[in-house]
Amino acid sequence: MASTVRPAYAADSARSRGRRLAEPAAPTRSEFQRDRDRIIHSTAFRRLVYKTQVFLNHEGDLFRTRLTHSLEVAQLGRSIGRSLGLDEDLVEAVALAHDLGHTPFGHAGQDVLDDCMRDHGGFEHNLQSLRVVDSLEQRYAAFDGLNLCFETREGILKHCSRRNAELIEASEPGGIATRFLHGGQPSLEAQLCNLADEVAYNAHDVDDGVRSGLIELEQLLEVDLVREHWRDALAAYPQLSGKRLLFETIRRMLSAQVYDIIDTTRAALDDAAPVDVRAVRGMDKPLLRFSADMRARSTALKRFLFANLYRHPQVQATRGRAEEVLRDIFEAYAADATQLPADFAGRSDRERACADYIAGMTDRFAIREHRRLTGKMLF
Q1: Which of 16, 33, 218, 287 suits 4 as a labelling partner, its CA being 20 to 30 A distant?
Q2: 113 and 127 in contact (C-beta within 8 Å)?
Q3: Burial, 112: exposed, middle or buried (Cβ in 10 Å; 0-12, 13-18, 19+)?
Q4: DSSP-assigned letter for residue 215
Q5: What is the DSSP code string of 22-87?
Q6: 303-360: per-residue pLDDT in tens?
Q7: Where in the numbering of this chain does the HD domain appear (predicted)?
């Protein structure tokens, strides 16, 4: 399929570094479009609808889940990518796949599995997302995983410990983990997904936090980024109040951050003038970024949310029960592998098999499985 002409610094599926297992080209889709489609049709992607973002699935129908978060990241990424001339299909593929390895119960689940696996290589959700697309999905006759392009896999591996980077590098020299060992950056499309992830988090956690009643809009007005756009919304619509005022404030916040990223990145690209994607990867810092002022404002909002929402006593109480659920399940499986499905029970790396199976669970399946294994009803 013919490639769309893009700026030299943008990824181009026609010049992809390829798949781990070579496949014939598709007649009607680019390689990055194929990746996007494979991700959407994966089992792991469907499970995201019942995985926690901040609030558990049963706590309310309108709170974000990992699925809705991933869709919002994809939307923001495509909008920004279009303005910068980037490959939107690659942006979307990375955005939709970036949380595939997340555990049930959000970061609480990751922390529990990392602790349970401390003597067996630990657990990193970004690395787990890569494991999902490289090996754990079992949909194709010719290979395990989804056999995605290098560029998509590169974007999925957002963070990586040095130990795990060395392990990946040993099996894939000069591949997706090299930058964690020797410096450098991923593609602009991957950089964009990292930033779109942050923008989406901040916006929807403000919405969900107020909707839940755990934070008040008046508290949020302590944060400069919120206060500025709340005032602008009221100046434009003096009679606005309640949910519509909150939504208008968030909409303006999102727009301001998006335009800031576009303007700042254009200036950075003009200054650096990367001649191709290889030059982008050779940079010592990301070219896709906020201005210094917007970075400070975004960080202040993240700190507010951490202190007032993520550490709220009600959220922490739920976290404690979630940690108990997953720890009990892991211990039960590790003690008796016959409790696992056959394709996991038969593996020689029992602890990793336990972590892989648990990481793939939805919140509600984990709750049901915990009741089956222990008889406890924590939720």
Answers
A1: 287
A2: no
A3: buried
A4: S
A5: --PPPSSS-HHHHHHHHHHTSHHHHHGGGSBSSS-GGG-SSS-BHHHHHHHHHHHHHHHHHHHT--
A6: 999 999 888 888 888 888 999 999 999 999 999 999 999 999 999 999 999 999 999 9
A7: 66-202
The tokens of 233 are what?
Answer: 């919304």
Which residues are registered as beta bridge partners of 65? 52
Region at 215 (left for phi over 0; alpha for psi -120 to 50; beta for the rest): beta
Q: Domains plus CATH for the chain?
A: 29-315 (1.10.3210.10)
Residues in a beta bridge with 19: 149
Place of tokens 């500025």: 228
What is the H or E stretch that residue 378 is in? none
- Mean pLDDT in the chain? 93
Q: What is the DSSP letter of 3?
A: P
Q: CB within 8 A of 284, min separation 6: which ones?
A: 183, 184, 185
In degrees rounded to 5, what are phi and psi of residue 305?
A: -65, -40
pLDDT tens figures, 8-60: 999 999 999 999 999 999 999 999 999 999 999 999 999 999 887 665 554 54
List Cβ neighbours of 346 (8 Å cut-off, separation of 6 or more): none
How many secondary structure helices (H) and strands (E) does the chain include? 19, 0
Query: Which two three-digit tokens encode residue 59?
Result: 């706590």
Closest CA to 50 of 59, 39, 42, 41: 59
Q: Is 171 helix (H, G, I), strand (E, B) or coil?
A: helix
Closest CA to 226 of 291, 302, 292: 302
The helix (H) or strand (E) run that includes residue 177 is none
